[in-house]
Design a protein that fits this description.
Blueprint lengths: L2 H17 L7 E3 L3 H8 L13 E5 L12 H7 L3 E4 L6 E4 L4 E7 L9 E3 L4 E6 L2 H5 L2 E6 L2 E6 L1 H12 L5 H18 L3 H13 L2 H14 L1 H7 L3
Parallel strand pairs: 2-5, 5-7
Antiparallel strand pairs: 1-2, 3-4, 4-5, 6-7, 8-9
Helix pairs in contact: 5-6, 5-7, 5-8, 8-9
Length: 229
């Protein structure tokens, strides 16, 4: 994989989505957020970036999309090929350097079937706990780009809670590594530690219990901080 070419395609996707007026409605999630967190914190080398093929976007569950845009056609013009999964009905978009996928928060009892987002002409996979990310947005600018990402604090807490549900040990370890690496940095910033505590106070007690049960083993400093909430 050519790292420079991958980054070029990554920026092109964001710029194209921004030009079409849809970047304001969707949220960038996943490992590519770490690039923007580095920018947010003065390009801190303490925040470890993870190279990944997956470029994930979160579509809001209950908010209307502002514009009608043919996203598959945009991606096709950039060299992405739609890949249809017959067993799930999900469509992702593959490029030699990246894979674009759309996700949506799972609400209520949920469903295994992807949800059709008609205005964008896409299908989005429903997953639990994604509403956590959507509820704590932050806009980070990189030159002409203005990208909505989850706050770093909720990104780390989300990784802890989803790690507890992973059946795949490799994916679980990646979630834990991402969470603890970012928490290591955030705990050097008093304002971010205060933000973590503030967010924990708003979460359902069951979710907080899950987060702290994971952090007790992998990042006990969080448990110490949570004692005086």
């Amino acid at each position: 994989m050519d790292v420079k070419e991958q980054f070029k395609i990554f920026r092109q996707v964001l710029l194209k989505f921004q030009a079409q007026g849809i970047l304001q409605d969707i949220m960038l999630i996943g490992s590519w957020c770490l690039y923007f967190y580095q920018i947010e914190f003065d390009k801190s080398a303490q925040i470890q970036r993870v190279r990944t093929m997956d470029l994930d976007f979160l579509v809001p569950a209950n908010k209307k999309i502002s514009k009608e845009v043919d996203v598959p056609e945009i991606l096709k013009q950039m060299g992405f090929i739609p890949t249809f999964n017959r067993s799930t009905g999900l469509v992702v978009y593959d490029h030699p350097d990246l894979r674009v996928e759309f996700l949506i928060p799972e609400l209520g009892r949920g469903s295994d079937k992807p949800k059709t987002i008609e205005k964008l002409n896409i299908k989005a996979q429903s997953l639990r706990y994604l509403n956590l990310l959507m509820d704590y947005p932050r806009i980070i600018s990189d030159d002409e780009l203005h990208v909505k990402v989850p706050e770093p604090a909720i990104y780390a807490l989300h990784k802890l809670i989803v790690s507890s549900r992973r059946k795949d040990a490799v994916k679980r370890d990646k979630d834990l590594e991402a969470a603890t690496n970012l928490l290591d940095f955030l705990f050097t910033r008093p304002n971010e530690v205060s933000r973590i505590k503030s967010i924990l106070r708003t979460l359902p007690k069951k979710w907080v219990k899950t987060i702290l049960s994971v952090s007790e083993k992998h990042f006990p400093r969080l448990n110490e901080t949570a004692k005086d909430m």
